[in-house]
Amino acid sequence: MDMNNEKLQKFIDAVNSEIENKVNDMLAEAEAEKKSILDEAERESQEAAEKHLNVNSKKNENRFVRDISKAELNMKKEVLQHRDELTAKVFAVVEQKIAEYRGTPKYVDMLIKKLLLIQVTEGSEIYLSPEDMKYADTLKKAIRAENVTFLPDEKIRLGGISVYNKQKGVISDKTFDLAVEEQKRIFTNSNAFAQ
Q1: d(Cα 154, Cα 136) in Å, to the nearest integer?
Q2: What is the count of structural domains for the chain?
Q3: pTM above 0.70?
Q4: Using CA atoms, how far apart are residues 49 and 53, in angstroms rounded to an integer?
Q5: How many CA atoms lie within 13 A of 122 on its CB side?
Q6: pLDDT for 67-87, tens place per residue?
Q7: What pLDDT, on the 0 to 100 scale, is given for residue 125?
Q8: How far apart, in Å, are the Cα atoms of 125 and each of 112, 156, 167?
C-alpha cells in the first residue's frame, strides 16, 4: 500500500501544486488589478485636484483682477474729488481777489475801458451787477452815448459788464462771471493737477 499511498501523495501534491499555482496566478492577477485600480484612482484624483486648483486659481485670479480694478476706480474717484476740492479752493481765492478789486478805484476805470473798447452805440443796454449800479452815472458820462440804458442783472455776481447792441443784435459779455467760468473749464480740461 505504500505504493498506493505514494501515488496518492503524488496526486495530492500535484493537485496542491496546481491549486497553489492557480492561487498564485489569481493573487498576481488580483495584485495587478489592485495596482491598476489604485493607479487609475490616483490619476483621477490628480486630475480632479488639478481641475479644482485651476478653477480656484481662475476664481482667485478673477477676484484679484476685480479687486485691483475696484481699487483703481476708487483711487481715481478720490483723485478727482481731491482735484475738484483744490479747484474750488483756487477759484474761491480768485473770487475773493475779484471782490477786493471791485472795491478799488481801478475797478471803475476798468469798466470804463471795457465800454470804450466795445464802442457802445445808441440804444444799447448795459448790464451791471446790482451792486455796481452805483457806477452807472460815471460810466454814462465816460462813454458819451445818448439813449443808453443801464440795467441791473442778478446773474452778474462777480462784476464786469455785459452790453447788448440792439442795432446789431449782439451781446458783448465782459463779466468776471464769464471769465471765471471759462478759466475753470480751461483749468479743469488742462488737468492742472496732473503730474
Answers
A1: 16
A2: 2
A3: no
A4: 6
A5: 2
A6: 888 888 888 888 888 888 888
A7: 92
A8: 15, 15, 11
Tell me the Ramachandran region of residue 173: left when phi exceeds 0, alpha when psi lies from -120 to 50, beta otherwise. Answer: beta
Residue whose cell numbers read 491598476: 36
Residue ending a domain, among 73, 102, 131, is 102
Q: What is the mean pLDDT of residues 134-147?
A: 86
Average pLDDT score over residue span 20-36 = 71
Nearby residues of 179 by Cβ (< 8 Å), 6 or more positions away: 160
Tell me if 195 is assigned to some domain: no
Task: Clarify whether residues 32 and 111 are in a common domain.
Answer: no
- CA distances (Å), 182 to each of 79, 174, 179, 188, in order? 22, 12, 5, 10
Domain final residue, candidates 81, 102, 123: 102
Q: Give the domain extent around 7.
A: 1-102
Reported as a single tens digit per residue, the pLDDT across 83-106 is 888 888 888 888 899 889 999 999
14 exposure class (CB count in 10 Å sphere: 0-12, 13-18, 19+): exposed
Domain check: are 98 and 109 in the same one? no
In the 8-state DSSP scheme, what is residue 148? -
Which of the 8 DSSP states describes residue 126? E
